[in-house]
Amino acid sequence: MSSVVSVRSFRRAARETVSGLPREFWWLWTSTLVNRLGAFVATFMALYLTLDRGYSASYAGLVAALHGLGGVVSSLAGGVMADRLGRRPTMLVAQTGTALSVAALGFVHHPLAIAGVAFLVGVASNASRPAVQAMMADIVPPEDRVRAFSLNYWAINLGFAISSMGAGFIAEFSYLAGFLIEAGMTLACAIVVFLKVPESRPERGGKDGTGAEEDAVGLGTVLRDRRFMGVVGLSFLVAFVFQQGAVGLPVAMGAAGFTPADYGMAIAVNGVLIVALQIPVTRFIQHRDPGRLLVISSVLAGYGFGLTAFAGSVGVFALTVCVWTLAEIVNAPTQTGLVVRLSPVHGRGRYQGMYSMSWAVAALTAPLTSGVVIDRYGAEWLWGLCAVVGTVAGVGYAVLMRGLPPEEAPAERPATAKADVQVGTAA
């Protein structure tokens, strides 16, 4: 009897989690899932360059840095495009460009050509992120946005987990096949967007019909927004901490005598927990104070990595991964929802672009910083630094969230959303 009740409870919870969201959101969600299912380059680029092409580890690191630099450059550019050209055109251009550049990467051989194309892949693949986030904010009512962002984050991690396993088998057969499969999957995303996702950008035209109202929202507006830029800075600190799961953790485990398989077992806990817990945790946090959630998740992330200093076995490493993964599950949708809350309607693309750039810069700087700290001072200092950075971010959020402006009224949103979607369907 209890098992029947638990099954019914699970079904009811799942239904409540996915119900009430616009149809356009689910097509966008499908596009995200397909995109992540085809992820290959970011996972196996280093192995491709060192094992298949025979280049040095230093060259592989340079290519990875150029790929990250491309993401930094395109974060702001993609945000501006999303506001000026529209969310849908930006996604189509970015996804088509990603497909072409990824396919080209499998055929180029000269070191300079590989580095240049890898930079283009970073530019194209990151340019669509501000548009996706802005479109979700456009089409999803305020009270459902944390849930929507959480579901999107869940799709990203589910797709990445599946693609990582599949990419290993594909790599043993042919790296070129992996590049072509990713190009095909990314092109499939563009097709889904073209056929099923209407434009959602709010109609232009200020109160006087000249468009002056939205034109006033430029990058300068974003940079002068002190509260938001404070959030961007704190987002960088949190992203720097989370990046250590892919950067500092494998290096530290290797230096301590653990094998790549040991690291794989420990870090696999991250993906498993996100897939298993993202939806139920979101149901618990979606109507709670975002400031408090960001404080708690920042501190929990910092001390989750800080506990790694005391890890001496794969089991303990996995336990620390559990701690900071819980912080990640809470932080990701909450922080994205906060960015939307602080963004003016006609500047959502630019604001999301600036927010995306904080993660791109963290992905670029974290490898350099962690390597220097581990080489000069030891891994324990890196984990202590993570605890300090997480604490600083938590304190920063506590200060910035004082007097947070109220979220837009739910009653004001549906009519606008409906009008926007109707305008966009005439592709």
Automatic annotation (TrEMBL):
It comes from the Bacteria. It is a multi-pass membrane protein. Residues 24-408 form the Major facilitator superfamily (MFS) profile domain. The keyword Transmembrane helix applies. The chain crosses the membrane at residues 26-49, 61-82, 102-127, 148-170, 176-195, 228-251, 263-281, 293-326, 354-374, 381-400. The keyword Cell membrane applies. InterPro entries: MFS (IPR011701), MFS_dom (IPR020846), MFS_trans_sf (IPR036259), MFS_Transporters (IPR050171), Sugar_transporter_CS (IPR005829). Residues 408-427 are annotated as: Disordered. It is found in: Cell membrane. Pfam families: MFS_1 (PF07690). Keywords: Cell membrane, Membrane, Transmembrane, Transmembrane helix, Transport. PANTHER family: MULTIDRUG RESISTANCE PROTEIN MDTH, RESISTANCE PROTEIN MDTM, PUTATIVE-RELATED-RELATED. This is MFS transporter. The lineage of its organism: Bacteria, Bacillati, Actinomycetota, Actinomycetes, Kitasatosporales.
